[in-house]
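Following up on my earlier thread - several people asked me to post the actual chain instead of describing it. Fair enough. Here it is, all 223 residues.
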Amino acid sequence: MKKIKNTEHTFVGIAKIGLPFILIGIFFTAALLFIGEFAIGFISLFLTLFLCWFFRDPERCAGIVSEDTIVSPADGKIIFADFVETTNFYNGRCFKISIFMSIFNVHVNRAVCAGKITKIEYNQGKFLKANLDKASLENEYNAVYLKTESGRDVCMVQIAGLIARRIVCYVKQGFNIDTSARFGMICFGSRVDLYLPADMQITGIASRGYNVSAGKTILGKLK
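Reply from S.P.:
Thanks for posting it. Predicted structure:
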């Protein structure tokens, strides 16, 4: 079974998925400056630098953690954290955490814990604002189901937003993945929903209004 390497999808601190956009930006910037279109050229330069910044992919590590430690799957702000009785993404009662990523956040998504990918479910939906409740089911999404070594089920759902129009997933069913390893990315503003066992121990930071960092902020521990 394939195991995702933590550096497989990054290059000198930039997500590889963004390199084509950056190279196109460099080409047009150089061409515009070469023919003397300095005003447009400097605008192109600014946009190219923004793309470099947007597709940044810094190394992340939660430190020494146990196999049942849950870390954040995304950078951003927690907009929902509570128990839900029924959902399409989990069998039975569970604890749901929704993290909204603005255009200013790092958009690389990371595994919340170590385990095996048991299922990938993609839905081609709408592009509503990602912070709306109905975006969970109506928007385009990619659900990644994971089973830990202790047999606990976890689901990470990448949700496209009003601006985000591309969900990238690096993993496939049957892959093994480590805590904090990259499993995908959503381009230009989006949201990640996390579904966890209802009996897990939640930290105080896993609450609405807190800002979290992918692969680094500890959200709780499975029992």
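The radius of gyration is 18 Å. That should answer part of your original question.
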